[in-house]
């Protein structure tokens, strides 16, 4: 199923799968979709999340401690797909759990589960020949990250290899909330546009309606990660889905009204 | 095995057989490419080599002696044993070779802020030293467990002007310090050079760090030919990330008659989490930028490790070692905590040399195999560092055992 953004700016919501538990992640994902999320990124918890800030580190640690595995995350994706046919579903992982599971087996099962795309944090285009082949064979969209530090030649390759959308990192840094959006993001999106007609989503540090509104001026979608994971962390388990739904509606008041 | 700058698009440089490569967040790619180019340029620049050679000689104290350990040889009653005395270098370990090289490179690239990770504290001390020498800002990440057990090195780093940042995630050891250093680098990549301390991480680090330590085997080779008129039968080195071992092995790789023996940390048992013997309990995987052997569980989560020596207490190993292991060119064994402590006592008592706990793993393997070898056989043990930093641990462990 192709990834689509129904409104502008679209909204991509990242969840660390298995935090606080798999059923809760399912309920939160469904609530997020119903509140207007176009795409759900299911984060596979990893022992060494070196691109993540403290919030997602803690969530990963909790989920790993509960024994959440890649196979569980694929099962979770299948359950979400059963009840919400339209939303985009992306598996978001560090490479090692996928490698250990087997790339072929992972892609086959992800495809069967109804997953649309895959984003591997530590996969760069130069290393991706085999990876791209296997994803393509299973009809999965490879989504690559583009960084403010990426020179134009790299952006061209990243754009060419990506399907679904390109994920533009808003600033040099790890995941986590910030007060204001830097000029890096707009620059990067402008440079990326030269190489692709795909939608461009901007993430890292997006946590407020003002950020989403600002991004809406130049990007196609906003990715909200740590802000969501922090709410899950702070909420009682049974309140998490409604807290997340409220937060998401508040991020794009205008869009929520239009629906 | 590895190629530099002008690699065709689509082929990743820095592969050792199937191992190595680059598995990093995109944000770091520009910095890795910049480093790769700067390193290739420096390699081709006679001035760079002249500067480095001068510092290695007058500042660090190279060449280090190749010392015939007669009393140790007699005590073990077999092979003739030589010690390569990297412990005599300034700052007390081989780590300074790489720090001087990367420090010069950072200066060429105009980077004024240096970050580093450290396990035993030796790489942190060497980094802090080089930053003091070059007038650069230095931040060292160190697991809180390692700060506790290598406390003296924490004080040394601070005295040298470095900021030591404790890392409290995971097992609070080397792997967690590398994670935190990489997070810093991703954030401050435009101004900061990451002075990685072993043959780990994404290309060009494994190649570059190995090259800065090649001087160890280059000297060993010359010294051996001078003293014995022939090459040794085996070279033994401990393997944490693998930098001293790559330095000690590299110039002998083509000499198929020289056995290359890497010694990993056997820790206190064979169960996952009780040791750091990657070639015994590990399997291929990606950790911290490179594809190599990793101690991990069925789900691909990286395991905890244990070793009495902080410098070997790490879940992965340099990718070039993975290739040498698979090809069979090098052999990898392990020495457990007890054998290691015994080896410290042995070397102290017979030769008056106190090795670092890391290096003592190599001494332990030497003590295991030398007795069954012929007096005509020659072993070289790379004594990668000295044991002053370990006095706290030794006092505790050896007193407990009634020594
Ligand atoms: C004296 C000494 N030897 C060896 C090591 C292990 O590192 P490597 O395997 O990179 O030589 C360390 C690391 O801290 C060390 O301090």
Describe this structure in words.
Chain B: The beta subunit is responsible for the synthesis of L-tryptophan from indole and L-serine. Chain B: It is an enzyme of class 4 (lyase). Chain B: Its cofactor is pyridoxal 5'-phosphate. With 259 residues, chain A is of the alpha/beta class. Chain A is 47% helix and 15% strand. Chain A contains twelve helices and nine strands. In chain A, strands 5-4-3-2-1-9-8-7-6 form a nine-stranded parallel sheet. In chain A, helix 7 (152-161) links the parallel strand 6 (145-146) and strand 7. In chain B, the strands form three sheets. A six-stranded mixed sheet of chain B has the order 3-4-14-9-10-13, sandwiched between helices. In chain B, strands 1-2-12-11 form a four-stranded antiparallel sheet. Chain B is globular and about 55 Å long. Chain B has two domains: 17-58 and 95-204, Rossmann fold (3-Layer(aba) Sandwich), CATH 3.40.50; 63-92 and 213-398, Rossmann fold, CATH 3.40.50. The interface between A and B is large, with 44 and 41 residues. The complex binds pyridoxal-5'-phosphate. Pyridoxal-5'-phosphate is lined by residues 93, 119-120, 122-123, 198, 238-245, 311-312, 356, 358-359, 384-385 of chain B.
| CATH architecture assignment name of the largest domain in chain B | 3-Layer(aba) Sandwich
Distance between the termini of chain A: 22 Å
Task: Say how many strands of chain B there are.
Answer: 14
Helix content of chain B: 40-55%
Helical amount of chain A: 40-55%
What general form of chain A does the structure show? globular
CATH class of the largest domain in chain B: Alpha Beta
Q: Unreliable segments of chain B (pLDDT under 50, ≥5 consecutive)?
A: 1-11
Major sheet: arrangement of strands of chain B: 3-4-14-9-10-13
How would you characterize the largest beta sheet of chain A? 9 strands, parallel
Hetero compounds: pyridoxal-5'-phosphate
Order of helices and strands of chain B: EEHHEHEHEHEHHEHEHHEHEHEEHEHHEH
Number of domains of chain A: 1
Which range does the strand content of chain A fall in? 5-15%
CATH topology of the largest domain in chain B: Rossmann fold
Tell me the structural class of chain A.
alpha/beta
